[in-house]
Design brief:
This protein is mostly beta strands. The chain has one domain: SH3 type barrels. The chain is 11% helix and 38% strand. The chain has one helix at 3-10, and strands spanning 18-22, 27-30, 36-38, 44-48, 54-58, 62-67. The chain starts with a helix and ends in a 7-residue tail after the last strand.
Length: 74
């Protein structure tokens, strides 16, 4: 995904929990906006995990962001 697309998700007016999927197949659940941050240019994502670790993800490895309440794709 482009950094601008990721920034748009982060800056939505109404927060909706989402899954962030990376190129290596990992899925990170973002259940609250306080648990995810980005660099100013959007190229680096910092994600706090459930066990209080901080993951650093290069945005070039983000393949899709899916809202958690979205219907499953066929």
């Amino acid at each position: 995904m482009k950094p601008s697309e990721i920034i748009n998700v982060f800056e939505r007016e109404q927060f909706v929990p989402y899954d962030l999927r990376t190129s290596d197949g990992r899925v990170y659940r973002v259940s609250h906006p306080d648990f995810v941050h980005r660099s100013k240019d959007g190229t680096i994502i910092y994600l706090q995990t459930d066990d209080d670790r901080l993951q650093r993800i290069d945005s070039s490895h983000v393949v899709v962001i899916e809202d958690v309440n979205a219907p499953a794709r066929a």
